[in-house]
Amino acid sequence: MGRVGDSAFLLTTLARRGLLRPGSPVRVVRQFDELRRWGFGLAGELRQAAARDPGRIAVIDESGSTTYAQLLDRSQRLARVLDVAAGDRVGLLCRNSTAMIETLIAATIAGADPVLLNTGLSGPQLAAVAHDQG
Q: Which residues 6+ apart lie within 8 Å of 21 measured at CB?
């Protein structure tokens, strides 16, 4: 893609993430700062959303609703206690829930590479995926 195509893609991406919406200048600066520091990965996306709209609902599941600020706080606390190092692979085998999202983000904050495992896998299939993913 050429320079014009790259610019259009970037503007489209920024617009989809709410970065081009009017907002509190302080929050918009924090939002861009988080993206600059963390990039467009899971940790950066959550941090920019929490900087922009901390009280906005991020996830709703059977246990209730969770704001961006709460999701970031819980993910950061979990990342501090995970026994993983940057570059480690972490398998996640759980049903869709806020806890799964928090764990996924915590692993990326810790620098690990999360591997999502399907809860429908049989024992031998799970062992094969674990072996293949290291």
A: none
83-72-86-88 Cα dihedral, nearest 10 degrees: 60
Whole-model pTM? 0.69
Residue range 29-40, pLDDT digits in tens: 666 666 666 555
Distance CA 89, CA 8 (A): 34
Q: State how far the Cα of 44 lies from the Cα of 116, in Å rounded to an integer.
A: 19
The domains of the chain, with CATH numbers, are: 24-133 (3.40.50.980)
Beta pairing class for 89-92 and 64-67: unpaired
Distance CA 96, CA 36 (A): 29
